[in-house]
Amino acid sequence: MTALGVVDEAGLTQTGHVRRNNEDSYLIRGDLFMIADGMGGAAAGEVASSMCAQAFAEIDLIRNRGDGALRDAIIVANTRIHDRAASDPAASGMGTTVTAALVERDGRVALANVGDSRAYLLREGALRRLTEDHSVVAELVATGQISDWEASSHPQRNVVTRVLGAEATVQVDTFWLEAQDGDVVLLCSDGLTDMVAEEEFAKLLAADKSCEQIARDLVRAALAQGGEDNVTTVLFRIGPSQAQEAAQPRTVLTQDPDLEPVDDGGGGRSRKRTVLRVMTTLGVIAILGAGSIYFLRWAHFVGADESSGHVAVYQGLPIELFGGVKLYHEVSDTHIAYAALNQATRKKLFDHTIRSDASARSVAESAGSSGP
After folding, report:
1. Which residue from 65, 205, 273, 317 puts its CA 20 to 30 A from 195's CA?
2. Would you state the pLDDT for residue 274?
3. What is the phi-psi region of residue 107: left when phi exceeds 0, alpha when psi lies from -120 to 50, beta otherwise?
4. What is the pLDDT at residue 251?
């Protein structure tokens, strides 16, 4: 039986059209692959994702393999990020997601993730999501409160419930993939999945191209759809392994200034989503024209601030219009870490019930008495 291993690999990250800084990092080190999507405002997100990448770069791949190696690196990264955030006021509240894969010598692939950066498998033309998002909208979808389509434009869609650095300990999901010849594994930040529908980037992954070309096509597709966030893709192809020299560790936190967005000719669902957002915008404008501005001033709801990692109170309606226009703004930060709350409490808090200012503040503050 022919041994399987990595026969092609590539990674690429871009700042995008909206963000000022690129807070994503990725690492490719032989048969080890990792992406991290930092958060925390200012430069703190960049620091957190880079610290995570550094922890993976330090793995002793001779003595430590499999999901244990990935879990150990994540625990080390979490401790370092948490300690840095606690000791450095400029880094307070910083954190990062992480998704990693390690290809074993028998062809099996160990995977680990925390947060909403994802791993996908393309096998014989079919795309399968390997990881489960640790996010507010994932919990809402799982409990039937919102649909997958509603999740794509939900105001809290980028709020993660599990992140490195938020707490002194972190829960890590690990699992194994029995690889087959021809498999393509993709690790990506939500800058890709928020912009490009899965059926669209599945077509790009299935193209008869090198991993480097596919990585560029994936990032271009995200930029063409708006590039509202940093976008990072790391992918590798499995095939009959060949003797190769050990790859040197390389940690990348950069953007490709020559990469421009192009229309890949797909965009069916993305264009449909754009039309629906335009229609929603026009509808809301009509409502406002009918005299509902007073209601917008009265209306408040509880949400999560992805920059601070805290439960917050917002004024307005939990609606994001076409072009990124929001009908809400934050009015109060409770300083309660939403990642530390249990799932039942998050479900109750983030249902976007419209309340008065006093009621919303009372509900938000009550979260502080809920255990993990």
Report:
1. 317
2. 46
3. left
4. 53
pLDDT value, residue 318: 74
C-alpha 288/C-alpha 80 separation (Å) is: 48
Cα 52 to Cα 46: distance, rounded to the nearest angstrom:
10
Query: For residue 311, which of 278, 276, 347, 346 has the smallest C-alpha distance?
Result: 346
Q: What stretches in the chain show pLDDT beneath 70?
A: 1, 41-43, 152-153, 155-156, 158, 242-296, 306-309, 319-325, 339-340, 343, 347, 368-372
pLDDT the model gives residue 371: 53
- Measured in residues, the chain has a length of 372
Report the pLDDT value the prediction gives residue 176, as an integer from 0 to 100: 97
Write down the pTM of the prediction.
0.74
Residue 255 has what pLDDT? 44
In angstroms, the CA 42 to CA 196 distance is: 27
CA atoms within 13 A on the CB side of 48: 34
Task: For residue 103, give every residue at least 6 positions away whose Cβ sits within 8 Å of its Cβ, in sequence order, or none.
Answer: 5, 6, 31, 32, 109, 179, 236, 238
State the sign of the Cα–Cα–Cα–Cα dihedral 317, 307, 364, 156.
positive
Q: Could you tell me the domains of the chain?
A: 4-256 (3.60.40.10), 271-369 (no CATH)
pLDDT at 223: 93
